[in-house]
Amino acid sequence: MDRLRVAPRGREGVIQYYNLIRGLHIIAVIAWMAGMLYLPRLFAYHTRAEPGSQMDETFKTMEVKLLRIIINPAMVLVFLFGGTLVWIDLTRLGPHFWSAPWALTKLAGIVFLASWHGFLAGARRAFAENRNQRSERFWRMTNELPFLAAIVIVIAATTKFGA
Fold first, then answer.
1. Rounded to whole angstroms, how far apart are CA atoms 96 and 143?
2. pTM for this structure?
3. What pLDDT is stored for residue 93 in this prediction?
4. How far apart are CA 155 and CA 110, in angstroms?
5. Which terminus of the chain has a smaller tally of CB atoms within 10 A, N or C?
């Protein structure tokens, strides 16, 4: 804790808000995860809708709003707050913490989630253009992937195994 008090003046301002930033990061992660868990479920139901039908149009509206109003902004906030936390930890702990197995595992999980986000955005475009090639079963089976990644990330970050 003494290192926090002796930080150079410019860094002290951000470091004193570490817990607030961490809390905001967690809230953003929850929103991002909720959206990425819900969107594939919408896709599963959307596969049953007849193209051009009222239900098809309803799903298209729900999917685009979920992505643009919740998932995309939440991801931006996750990276903004998470990046700030990394910067603070680099200041407090030095760069060596990134080579710990827990940090590399967390980073791999984050890369997966960002890639899955991009995959879902592409799938949303495919549904919007009536060119979805994936089955209801596919969307149901992949629906839980973000949650599995979250389990790995949270366990890595909270236990800091290998540190």
1. 35
2. 0.87
3. 82
4. 13
5. N
pLDDT of 95: 85
Q: What is the DSSP letter of 50?
A: P
Residues 6 or more apart whose Cβ sits within 8 Å of residue 46: 56, 59, 60, 63, 127, 132
Contact 91/21 with Cβ under 8 angstroms?
no
With both helix axes pointing from N to C terminus, report the angle between 18-46 and 101-128 in degrees, rounded to the nearest 10. Answer: 40
3: amino acid identity, one letter = R
Closest CA to 139 of 116, 106, 161, 160: 116
User: Which residue type occupies 119?
Assistant: F
CB neighbour list of residue 66: distance below 8 Å, 6 or more residues apart? 35, 38, 39, 42
**Cα angle for residues 36, 40, 43 (degrees, 5° grid):** 140
Q: pLDDT by residue (tens digit) across 59-102? A: 999 999 999 999 999 999 999 999 999 998 888 888 888 888 99
Inter-axis angle of helices 72-93 and 101-128, to 10 degrees? 170
Rounded (10°) CA dihedral 94, 162, 23, 115: 100
Q: Which residues fall within 8 angstroms of residue 118, CB to CB, at 6 or more apart?
A: none
